[in-house]
Task: inverse folding
């Protein structure tokens, strides 16, 4: 469990944890891969969320997912992408969170994921929590703790 | 400044902060972009270091840097990559660090960079420090602080 004072400081920027859905580039699972390649190469993110037509999150797709599909037996072939859609290459069953309050889970999941999609109970995509935003809070934390508190060891040091 | 007890706990995993150069996929600036595309799409990282023939770090290259170059006036054209090398698309003047001890700098720089190349005085590439490894230490930190220490507020709370 995260200590309560520590959690308090980490959460002082909680309102900025989530990049809202409106500010996140996404793709529909029905989009052709040519379109996906265009979006991904211009958007500045290596991986973005994939939605269905009801705004439900159904996966993530990366530039690497698409470029791999261009790899033919004798080299890359852009033609291999025709007739394929995002649904053919996306990663599914990706970890998500429902609230920015679940800091314990968020910090653990971000060890392996560069961002976490936030969804509601109906799996509607609400935004993302990025390592970038969490690292801003971590910077705040490590600078603030000992400005605000004196840290008293809980166990007496025996050999000193 | 990072508090001294906080820094102590964060650094307990310091030996794992740096992924050593031998375990990091890299490219030479002279490599053709077709080769770079192959490496980047198979390696699992969206961006990797670019070295010269003396192992000096000279830049970073991402899948997006290369895919952008394939964008022609009428759509993507793989042929646009021929005769281009990594040097033609890499990002230069990227932030680097020299030691895993510079935690203050590392934590700040990782807000905007997904990893930091580590170089020595001669700019020889020694490895990378990733957000992933730092987030492992952050998890350790937020769970340990209040197990080990009682946090006493430094200023009396006036209005209770």
Result:
């Amino acid at each position: 469990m995260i200590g309560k004072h520590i959690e308090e400081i980490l959460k002082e920027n909680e309102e900025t944890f989530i990049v809202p859905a409106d500010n996140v580039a996404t793709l529909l699972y029905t989009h052709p891969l040519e379109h996906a390649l265009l979006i991904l190469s211009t958007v500045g993110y290596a991986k973005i969320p994939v939605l269905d037509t009801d705004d439900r999150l159904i996966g993530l797709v990366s530039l690497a997912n698409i470029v791999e599909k261009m790899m033919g037996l004798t080299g890359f072939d852009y033609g291999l992408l025709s007739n394929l859609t995002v649904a053919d290459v996306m990663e599914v069953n990706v970890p998500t969170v429902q609230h920015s309050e679940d800091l314990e889970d968020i910090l653990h999941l971000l060890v392996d994921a560069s961002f976490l999609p936030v969804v509601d109970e109906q799996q509607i995509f609400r935004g993302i929590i990025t390592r970038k935003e969490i690292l801003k809070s971590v910077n705040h934390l490590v600078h603030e703790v000992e400005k605000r508190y004196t840290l008293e060891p809980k166990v007496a040091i025996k050999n000193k």
Notes: Residues 13 and 97 of chain A are 18 Å apart (CA to CA).
